Amino acid sequence: MLKILVADGMEKAAVEKLKEMEFEIVEKHYEPEELMKEIKEFDILVVRSATKVKKSIIDAACETGRLKLIIRGGVGLDNIDVDYARARGIMVRNTPNASSASVAELVIGHMINLARYIHNSNITMRQGQWNKKAYEGVEICGKTLGIIGFGRIGRETAKRAKALGMNVIYTDIAGELKEYHGYRYMDMDELLACADFVTLHVPYTGGKAVIGREEIAKMKDGAYLINCARGGVVDEEALLEALDADKLAGAALDVYVKEPAKDCPLCNHEKVSCTPHIGASTMEAQERIGEEIVEIILDYYDGRKLNGCIESF
Ligand SMILES: NC(=O)C1=CN([C@@H]2O[C@H](COP(=O)(O)OP(=O)(O)OC[C@H]3O[C@@H](n4cnc5c(N)ncnc54)[C@H](O)[C@@H]3O)[C@@H](O)[C@H]2O)C=CC1
Ligand SMILES: O=C(O)CCC(=O)C(=O)O
């Protein structure tokens, strides 16, 4: 029987479906040292972002050779050493489409939060304050949204921003995407100079941040920065300096270099609207992710049956 480790949780209905099919499911999060021991007994590993599947885990799995498939319930594969896993004969899959709408909605929520001080109002009203005068905001209608990375989430965000009356401009390393009308392509420098709000929707691939000191300096004075992609794509120190220096009016963050982010200076900053990496945390996205994971497992299972190696399960 296929033995599956669900390390970072999975939607209940999907777990039940797999159990009904008589796969053996273990739902448990292991710290790295423990995971190195336990992983040897599993055929499939399902993770979200909390479990880091680095070389040491893959090497440990290869001692028995049982692990054949790693599934990332989500988009970003930065927590998995994908090339190394594939080189060692382990397939890696993700669920790329399931959460785009949820992340885009969170971006719009953060943007309105920043523009209207909703995050600050929530805190200060609970402290008994009535800061009506201090919280005169701005409309987002008529403002320019600059999207860095015009993939699935970037485009979903663009649609929503356009419907709210924003001018949408974008940049992408792939260049201009001619099939998307109504959104203007610019190079990065032009976009930074024109946008009132800048939002990032790029993968984290290691190395230098996409938005660092130099890029912030090129942004409009009083602009806002939103990062619902990955912590590493923004230089957090440079962002903090820019907020303190009033170069930027505010920032919204769902992701952080170090997660869980507790007591971090950015989260405690009054110009920051923050959420704890909840871009994909909606019932709908998790349901779709669960369904996709079940499909991937069934495809794999059917493939094995077709290849005549089902007896090894
Ligand atoms: N906050 C959250 O809970 C979630 C965050 N994410 C993050 O969002 C990222 C984007 O997701 P998708 O839109 O689905 O990916 P995607 O692959 O559809 O789009 C990414 C786009 O960014 C472009 N790109 C890559 N590097 C770039 C750079 N340096 N400058 C400009 N463009 C660049 C690519 O050409 C591509 O068009 C994921 O990699 C993941 O890290 C995804 C889901 C949930
Ligand atoms: O559920 C998660 O792990 C967060 C979602 C995410 O960041 C992703 O899908 O890339």
From TrEMBL:
Keywords: Amino-acid biosynthesis, NAD, Oxidoreductase
Enzyme Commission number(s) from the entry: 1.1.1.399
Gene3D superfamilies assigned to the protein according to its UniProt record, in alphabetical order: NAD(P)-binding Rossmann-like Domain
GO biological process: amino acid biosynthetic process
CDD domains referenced in this protein's UniProt entry, alphabetically: PGDH_2
InterPro entries, sorted: Ado_hCys_hydrolase_NAD-bd (IPR015878), D-2-hydroxyacid_DH (IPR050857), D-isomer_2_OHA_DH_cat_dom (IPR006139), D-isomer_DH_CS (IPR029753), D-isomer_DH_CS1 (IPR029752), D-isomer_DH_NAD-bd (IPR006140), NAD(P)-bd_dom_sf (IPR036291)
Domain S-adenosyl-L-homocysteine hydrolase NAD binding: 131-312
Source taxon at top rank: Bacteria
Pfam family, one: 2-Hacid_dh
An MF annotation (GO) of this entry: oxidoreductase activity, acting on the CH-OH group of donors, NAD or NADP as acceptor
Similarity comment text for this entry: Belongs to the D-isomer specific 2-hydroxyacid dehydrogenase family.
Protein role: Catalyzes the reversible oxidation of 3-phospho-D-glycerate to 3-phosphonooxypyruvate, the first step of the phosphorylated L-serine biosynthesis pathway. Also catalyzes the reversible oxidation of 2-hydroxyglutarate to 2-oxoglutarate.
Record-given protein name: 2-oxoglutarate reductase
